Amino acid sequence: MMIHRSARLALSIGLFHAVGLLGSAQGAGFSGVGSAPCGAGTKNLIGTFSSNVANYATTDTCTTKGSLGAPITFPYKAEGRFSDNIAVETIEVPAAPINQPGHPYGRWSTTYSCQTDPWLTPDPFPNEVREPVVKCQIISQHDFSPTWGPLKDGEIDKPLDRLYEAWRKHKPLTSYYLAPQQRQALASKRENDLRAEAEALAKAKREKRRAAQRLQGATEAPSQYRASLAPIILAPTGGQRFYNGTVVPIRLGPPPQWADANVGLDGAPITTARSVTFYLVRLERRDAQGNWVYYGAHTVSAADARSTSGYTGFGAGGPPVGNATPGVWRLSAQVSLPQRSGWSNWVEFVVMAPVSVPNSRVQKGPKMFGQ
Protein backbone atom coordinates (compact mmCIF):
# COMPACT_ATOMS: atom_id res chain seq x y z
CA MET A 1 0.00 0.00 0.00
CA MET A 2 1.44 3.47 -0.87
CA ILE A 3 0.45 7.00 0.08
CA HIS A 4 1.33 9.84 -2.38
CA ARG A 5 0.79 13.39 -1.27
CA SER A 6 0.35 16.15 -3.86
CA ALA A 7 0.32 19.82 -3.02
CA ARG A 8 -2.98 19.01 -1.31
CA LEU A 9 -1.34 16.08 0.57
CA ALA A 10 -3.24 13.56 -1.59
CA LEU A 11 -2.79 10.07 -0.15
CA SER A 12 -2.33 6.92 -2.25
CA ILE A 13 -2.09 3.35 -1.02
CA GLY A 14 -0.60 0.25 -2.64
CA LEU A 15 1.08 -2.94 -1.38
CA PHE A 16 4.71 -3.55 -2.32
CA HIS A 17 8.27 -2.55 -1.36
CA ALA A 18 8.49 1.19 -0.89
CA VAL A 19 10.87 2.04 -3.70
CA GLY A 20 9.39 -0.31 -6.29
CA LEU A 21 5.84 0.73 -5.56
CA LEU A 22 6.68 4.40 -5.72
CA GLY A 23 8.02 4.09 -9.27
CA SER A 24 4.98 2.04 -10.37
CA ALA A 25 2.57 4.51 -8.87
CA GLN A 26 4.25 7.42 -10.59
CA GLY A 27 3.86 5.61 -13.89
CA ALA A 28 0.15 5.25 -13.17
CA GLY A 29 -0.28 8.95 -12.45
CA PHE A 30 -0.27 8.78 -8.64
CA SER A 31 2.79 10.95 -8.02
CA GLY A 32 3.12 14.20 -6.24
CA VAL A 33 5.48 16.51 -4.42
CA GLY A 34 6.20 15.24 -0.90
CA SER A 35 4.87 11.76 -1.62
CA ALA A 36 5.66 8.98 0.87
CA PRO A 37 4.79 5.31 0.72
CA CYS A 38 3.07 2.98 3.15
CA GLY A 39 4.93 -0.07 4.33
CA ALA A 40 4.88 -3.11 2.09
CA GLY A 41 2.18 -4.75 4.15
CA THR A 42 2.58 -8.05 2.38
CA LYS A 43 5.59 -8.99 4.46
CA ASN A 44 3.21 -9.26 7.42
CA LEU A 45 0.43 -11.05 5.54
CA ILE A 46 -0.67 -14.21 7.28
CA GLY A 47 -3.21 -16.79 6.17
CA THR A 48 -5.35 -19.31 8.01
CA PHE A 49 -7.18 -21.99 6.06
CA SER A 50 -9.94 -24.53 6.37
CA SER A 51 -11.69 -26.72 3.84
CA ASN A 52 -14.31 -24.05 3.12
CA VAL A 53 -12.65 -20.67 3.79
CA ALA A 54 -9.33 -18.84 3.63
CA ASN A 55 -8.67 -15.84 5.86
CA TYR A 56 -5.90 -13.29 5.46
CA ALA A 57 -4.70 -10.43 7.64
CA THR A 58 -1.88 -7.89 7.56
CA THR A 59 -0.80 -4.75 9.41
CA ASP A 60 1.81 -2.09 8.69
CA THR A 61 2.38 1.64 8.86
CA CYS A 62 2.18 4.62 6.52
CA THR A 63 4.29 7.78 6.71
CA THR A 64 3.33 11.20 5.33
CA LYS A 65 3.07 14.79 6.45
CA GLY A 66 0.46 15.28 9.09
CA SER A 67 -1.93 18.14 9.59
CA LEU A 68 0.87 20.19 11.24
CA GLY A 69 3.15 19.78 8.23
CA ALA A 70 5.63 17.43 9.92
CA PRO A 71 6.08 13.77 8.95
CA ILE A 72 3.74 11.43 10.81
CA THR A 73 3.60 7.65 10.89
CA PHE A 74 0.30 5.88 11.48
CA PRO A 75 -0.89 2.25 11.28
CA TYR A 76 -3.29 0.52 8.93
CA LYS A 77 -4.67 -2.98 8.78
CA ALA A 78 -6.22 -5.11 6.06
CA GLU A 79 -8.24 -8.32 6.20
CA GLY A 80 -9.27 -10.66 3.40
CA ARG A 81 -11.52 -13.69 3.05
CA PHE A 82 -12.10 -16.15 0.20
CA SER A 83 -14.86 -18.77 0.12
CA ASP A 84 -17.07 -20.22 -2.63
CA ASN A 85 -15.46 -17.97 -5.28
CA ILE A 86 -16.27 -14.86 -3.26
CA ALA A 87 -13.45 -12.64 -2.00
CA VAL A 88 -13.98 -9.88 0.56
CA GLU A 89 -11.32 -7.34 1.50
CA THR A 90 -11.53 -4.68 4.19
CA ILE A 91 -8.85 -2.01 4.63
CA GLU A 92 -8.93 0.28 7.62
CA VAL A 93 -6.82 3.35 8.41
CA PRO A 94 -7.78 4.54 11.89
CA ALA A 95 -8.17 8.22 12.64
CA ALA A 96 -5.37 9.92 14.54
CA PRO A 97 -5.70 10.11 18.33
CA ILE A 98 -6.81 13.49 19.58
CA ASN A 99 -3.34 14.22 20.94
CA GLN A 100 -1.61 13.61 17.56
CA PRO A 101 -1.59 15.48 14.24
CA GLY A 102 -4.39 14.42 11.90
CA HIS A 103 -3.94 12.22 8.82
CA PRO A 104 -6.16 10.69 6.14
CA TYR A 105 -8.25 7.78 7.47
CA GLY A 106 -11.21 5.63 6.55
CA ARG A 107 -12.55 2.12 6.00
CA TRP A 108 -12.99 0.44 2.62
CA SER A 109 -14.72 -2.90 2.09
CA THR A 110 -15.03 -4.59 -1.31
CA THR A 111 -16.69 -7.85 -2.34
CA TYR A 112 -15.52 -9.65 -5.48
CA SER A 113 -16.45 -12.64 -7.57
CA CYS A 114 -13.22 -14.55 -8.37
CA GLN A 115 -12.59 -17.77 -10.20
CA THR A 116 -9.64 -18.61 -7.93
CA ASP A 117 -8.26 -17.36 -4.64
CA PRO A 118 -6.52 -14.09 -5.65
CA TRP A 119 -4.08 -14.29 -2.73
CA LEU A 120 -2.83 -17.68 -3.92
CA THR A 121 -2.99 -17.12 -7.68
CA PRO A 122 0.19 -15.63 -9.21
CA ASP A 123 -0.11 -12.77 -11.70
CA PRO A 124 2.22 -12.35 -14.69
CA PHE A 125 2.91 -8.74 -13.67
CA PRO A 126 3.32 -8.86 -9.88
CA ASN A 127 5.30 -5.60 -9.62
CA GLU A 128 3.33 -3.39 -11.98
CA VAL A 129 0.19 -1.33 -11.51
CA ARG A 130 -1.22 -2.45 -14.83
CA GLU A 131 -4.47 -4.29 -15.41
CA PRO A 132 -3.91 -7.81 -14.08
CA VAL A 133 -4.38 -10.94 -16.11
CA VAL A 134 -6.08 -12.62 -13.15
CA LYS A 135 -9.23 -10.56 -12.69
CA CYS A 136 -12.12 -10.52 -10.24
CA GLN A 137 -15.45 -8.77 -10.68
CA ILE A 138 -16.57 -6.25 -8.07
CA ILE A 139 -19.94 -7.19 -6.59
CA SER A 140 -20.26 -4.41 -4.03
CA GLN A 141 -18.18 -1.87 -2.16
CA HIS A 142 -18.75 0.16 0.98
CA ASP A 143 -16.49 3.12 1.72
CA PHE A 144 -16.13 5.43 4.68
CA SER A 145 -13.44 8.08 4.14
CA PRO A 146 -14.11 11.50 5.67
CA THR A 147 -12.62 14.62 4.04
CA TRP A 148 -9.25 15.39 5.54
CA GLY A 149 -7.00 18.46 5.59
CA PRO A 150 -7.66 22.12 4.89
CA LEU A 151 -9.93 22.67 1.90
CA LYS A 152 -10.68 25.56 -0.38
CA ASP A 153 -14.23 26.63 -0.78
CA GLY A 154 -16.25 23.96 -2.57
CA GLU A 155 -13.32 21.54 -2.74
CA ILE A 156 -13.78 17.89 -1.82
CA ASP A 157 -10.55 16.08 -1.10
CA LYS A 158 -10.69 12.32 -0.50
CA PRO A 159 -7.36 11.07 -1.87
CA LEU A 160 -7.74 7.55 -0.54
CA ASP A 161 -11.00 7.11 -2.40
CA ARG A 162 -9.35 8.20 -5.63
CA LEU A 163 -6.53 5.72 -5.22
CA TYR A 164 -8.70 2.81 -4.16
CA GLU A 165 -10.85 3.20 -7.25
CA ALA A 166 -7.79 2.33 -9.33
CA TRP A 167 -5.95 -0.12 -7.07
CA ARG A 168 -8.88 -2.34 -6.11
CA LYS A 169 -10.62 -2.29 -9.48
CA HIS A 170 -9.74 -5.83 -10.56
CA LYS A 171 -8.98 -7.76 -7.37
CA PRO A 172 -8.24 -7.26 -3.67
CA LEU A 173 -5.54 -4.69 -3.18
CA THR A 174 -3.60 -6.84 -0.72
CA SER A 175 -3.35 -9.64 -3.30
CA TYR A 176 -1.34 -7.62 -5.88
CA TYR A 177 2.19 -7.44 -4.58
CA LEU A 178 2.88 -10.84 -3.14
CA ALA A 179 6.24 -12.25 -4.20
CA PRO A 180 6.25 -15.82 -5.59
CA GLN A 181 7.88 -17.15 -2.42
CA GLN A 182 5.15 -15.51 -0.32
CA ARG A 183 2.40 -17.17 -2.35
CA GLN A 184 4.26 -20.45 -2.06
CA ALA A 185 4.49 -19.99 1.70
CA LEU A 186 0.73 -19.35 1.84
CA ALA A 187 0.06 -22.41 -0.32
CA SER A 188 2.22 -24.54 2.02
CA LYS A 189 0.39 -23.10 5.02
CA ARG A 190 -2.93 -23.98 3.40
CA GLU A 191 -1.77 -27.55 2.75
CA ASN A 192 -0.67 -27.91 6.39
CA ASP A 193 -3.90 -26.37 7.73
CA LEU A 194 -6.06 -28.66 5.61
CA ARG A 195 -4.04 -31.70 6.69
CA ALA A 196 -4.44 -30.70 10.33
CA GLU A 197 -8.17 -30.15 9.80
CA ALA A 198 -8.54 -33.58 8.18
CA GLU A 199 -6.62 -35.22 11.03
CA ALA A 200 -8.74 -33.40 13.62
CA LEU A 201 -11.91 -34.43 11.80
CA ALA A 202 -10.76 -38.04 11.63
CA LYS A 203 -9.88 -37.95 15.32
CA ALA A 204 -13.29 -36.50 16.17
CA LYS A 205 -14.96 -39.26 14.14
CA ARG A 206 -12.91 -41.90 15.96
CA GLU A 207 -13.83 -40.40 19.32
CA LYS A 208 -17.49 -40.28 18.32
CA ARG A 209 -17.36 -43.89 17.19
CA ARG A 210 -15.66 -44.93 20.44
CA ALA A 211 -18.25 -43.01 22.45
CA ALA A 212 -21.02 -44.78 20.54
CA GLN A 213 -19.34 -48.12 21.18
CA ARG A 214 -19.00 -47.32 24.88
CA LEU A 215 -22.66 -46.33 25.02
CA GLN A 216 -23.65 -49.48 23.16
CA GLY A 217 -21.50 -51.54 25.50
CA ALA A 218 -23.07 -49.83 28.51
CA THR A 219 -26.50 -50.66 27.09
CA GLU A 220 -25.62 -54.21 26.14
CA ALA A 221 -24.01 -55.04 29.47
CA PRO A 222 -27.29 -54.83 31.44
CA SER A 223 -29.05 -56.58 28.56
CA GLN A 224 -26.56 -59.43 28.64
CA TYR A 225 -26.81 -59.58 32.41
CA ARG A 226 -30.60 -59.68 32.25
CA ALA A 227 -30.48 -62.35 29.56
CA SER A 228 -28.45 -64.50 31.91
CA LEU A 229 -31.27 -64.41 34.48
CA ALA A 230 -34.42 -66.52 34.40
CA PRO A 231 -37.88 -66.48 35.95
CA ILE A 232 -38.83 -68.63 38.93
CA ILE A 233 -41.21 -71.56 38.41
CA LEU A 234 -43.51 -71.60 41.44
CA ALA A 235 -45.86 -74.29 40.08
CA PRO A 236 -45.82 -77.05 39.20
CA THR A 237 -43.15 -78.19 41.59
CA GLY A 238 -40.63 -80.88 40.81
CA GLY A 239 -42.21 -84.38 40.91
CA GLN A 240 -45.74 -83.08 41.38
CA ARG A 241 -48.46 -85.43 40.03
CA PHE A 242 -51.65 -84.57 38.17
CA TYR A 243 -54.50 -86.69 36.81
CA ASN A 244 -55.17 -86.81 33.13
CA GLY A 245 -57.87 -84.32 32.12
CA THR A 246 -57.19 -81.94 35.00
CA VAL A 247 -55.59 -78.50 34.91
CA VAL A 248 -51.85 -78.24 35.43
CA PRO A 249 -51.63 -74.75 36.93
CA ILE A 250 -48.51 -72.78 35.99
CA ARG A 251 -47.38 -70.08 38.36
CA LEU A 252 -44.29 -67.99 37.67
CA GLY A 253 -42.31 -65.24 39.33
CA PRO A 254 -39.93 -62.74 37.69
CA PRO A 255 -36.21 -63.09 38.14
CA PRO A 256 -35.46 -61.71 41.61
CA GLN A 257 -33.36 -58.91 40.12
CA TRP A 258 -36.33 -57.86 37.96
CA ALA A 259 -39.00 -57.96 40.62
CA ASP A 260 -40.87 -54.73 41.34
CA ALA A 261 -39.29 -53.24 44.42
CA ASN A 262 -42.29 -51.16 45.51
CA VAL A 263 -45.78 -52.12 46.53
CA GLY A 264 -48.94 -50.10 46.98
CA LEU A 265 -51.07 -49.74 50.10
CA ASP A 266 -52.99 -52.86 49.10
CA GLY A 267 -49.77 -54.85 48.96
CA ALA A 268 -49.87 -55.23 45.19
CA PRO A 269 -46.61 -54.56 43.35
CA ILE A 270 -46.33 -51.25 41.58
CA THR A 271 -45.40 -52.00 38.00
CA THR A 272 -42.71 -50.01 36.27
CA ALA A 273 -41.30 -49.85 32.78
CA ARG A 274 -38.97 -52.67 33.78
CA SER A 275 -41.75 -54.92 35.04
CA VAL A 276 -42.35 -58.32 33.43
CA THR A 277 -45.51 -58.38 31.31
CA PHE A 278 -45.35 -61.75 29.53
CA TYR A 279 -43.64 -65.12 29.85
CA LEU A 280 -43.08 -67.92 27.36
CA VAL A 281 -43.46 -71.50 28.71
CA ARG A 282 -42.20 -74.47 26.71
CA LEU A 283 -43.31 -78.06 27.35
CA GLU A 284 -41.68 -81.38 26.54
CA ARG A 285 -42.80 -85.00 27.08
CA ARG A 286 -40.67 -88.10 27.46
CA ASP A 287 -41.29 -90.79 24.86
CA ALA A 288 -41.10 -94.58 25.27
CA GLN A 289 -37.36 -94.55 24.49
CA GLY A 290 -36.69 -91.98 27.21
CA ASN A 291 -36.09 -89.04 24.82
CA TRP A 292 -37.54 -85.63 25.47
CA VAL A 293 -39.83 -84.52 22.65
CA TYR A 294 -40.95 -80.93 22.17
CA TYR A 295 -44.70 -80.63 22.75
CA GLY A 296 -45.50 -76.92 22.42
CA ALA A 297 -45.30 -73.45 24.01
CA HIS A 298 -47.70 -71.16 25.86
CA THR A 299 -47.60 -67.38 26.16
CA VAL A 300 -48.53 -66.52 29.72
CA SER A 301 -49.37 -63.03 30.95
CA ALA A 302 -47.70 -61.81 34.12
CA ALA A 303 -51.13 -61.27 35.66
CA ASP A 304 -52.09 -64.94 35.15
CA ALA A 305 -48.66 -66.19 36.17
CA ARG A 306 -48.73 -64.45 39.55
CA SER A 307 -52.40 -65.08 40.33
CA THR A 308 -53.43 -67.58 43.03
CA SER A 309 -54.79 -70.09 40.53
CA GLY A 310 -51.95 -69.49 38.06
CA TYR A 311 -52.21 -70.03 34.32
CA THR A 312 -54.85 -72.70 33.62
CA GLY A 313 -54.51 -73.10 29.86
CA PHE A 314 -52.58 -76.39 30.06
CA GLY A 315 -53.69 -79.83 31.23
CA ALA A 316 -57.42 -79.79 30.58
CA GLY A 317 -57.31 -77.52 27.56
CA GLY A 318 -57.95 -78.48 23.99
CA PRO A 319 -55.53 -79.53 21.31
CA PRO A 320 -53.01 -79.00 19.95
CA VAL A 321 -51.02 -78.01 23.05
CA GLY A 322 -53.60 -77.62 25.77
CA ASN A 323 -54.17 -81.21 26.90
CA ALA A 324 -51.76 -83.34 28.92
CA THR A 325 -51.71 -87.08 28.33
CA PRO A 326 -50.38 -89.49 30.92
CA GLY A 327 -46.61 -89.58 31.11
CA VAL A 328 -43.59 -87.66 32.34
CA TRP A 329 -43.45 -83.98 31.44
CA ARG A 330 -41.17 -81.04 31.97
CA LEU A 331 -41.46 -77.31 31.48
CA SER A 332 -39.12 -74.30 31.36
CA ALA A 333 -39.94 -70.58 31.22
CA GLN A 334 -38.42 -67.31 30.15
CA VAL A 335 -39.46 -63.64 30.27
CA SER A 336 -40.57 -62.60 26.77
CA LEU A 337 -41.62 -58.97 27.41
CA PRO A 338 -40.53 -56.27 27.94
CA GLN A 339 -37.15 -57.90 27.40
CA ARG A 340 -36.22 -61.50 26.73
CA SER A 341 -34.48 -63.32 29.58
CA GLY A 342 -32.67 -66.61 29.74
CA TRP A 343 -34.54 -69.93 30.17
CA SER A 344 -35.14 -71.35 33.61
CA ASN A 345 -34.06 -74.83 34.62
CA TRP A 346 -36.45 -77.63 33.71
CA VAL A 347 -39.07 -78.72 36.22
CA GLU A 348 -40.38 -82.28 35.79
CA PHE A 349 -43.91 -83.41 36.73
CA VAL A 350 -46.11 -86.45 36.08
CA VAL A 351 -49.55 -86.72 34.50
CA MET A 352 -51.31 -89.92 35.65
CA ALA A 353 -54.25 -91.79 34.22
CA PRO A 354 -57.48 -91.60 36.25
CA VAL A 355 -57.86 -94.16 39.04
CA SER A 356 -60.61 -95.96 37.08
CA VAL A 357 -58.21 -96.70 34.23
CA PRO A 358 -56.27 -99.97 34.55
CA ASN A 359 -52.67 -99.47 35.51
CA SER A 360 -51.56 -101.31 32.36
CA ARG A 361 -52.81 -98.39 30.29
CA VAL A 362 -50.85 -95.81 32.22
CA GLN A 363 -47.36 -95.02 31.03
CA LYS A 364 -45.22 -95.71 33.99
CA GLY A 365 -43.07 -92.75 34.94
CA PRO A 366 -39.55 -93.03 36.30
CA LYS A 367 -38.96 -93.12 39.99
CA MET A 368 -38.45 -89.59 41.18
CA PHE A 369 -37.42 -87.95 44.39
CA GLY A 370 -36.54 -91.15 46.17
CA GLN A 371 -39.64 -93.05 45.15
Gyration radius, in Å: 46 Å
Beta-strand content bin:
25-35%
The major beta sheet can be summarized as: 6 strands, antiparallel
> How helix-rich are the residues, as a percent range?
10-25%
Commentary on this structure:
The protein has 371 residues and is an alpha+beta fold. 19% of the residues lie in helices and 28% in strands. It is built from four helices and 15 strands. It has helices at residues 18-27, 159-167, 180-227, 302-305, and strands at 2-3, 36-37, 46-49, 54-65, 71-83, 86-93, 106-113, 137-144, 232-235, 241-243, 251-253, 278-286, 292-301, 327-337, 347-352. Strands 3-4-5-6-7-8 form a six-stranded antiparallel beta sheet. A hairpin with a 5-residue loop joins strand 12 (278-286) and strand 13. The longest helix has 48 residues, at 180-227. The termini are far apart.
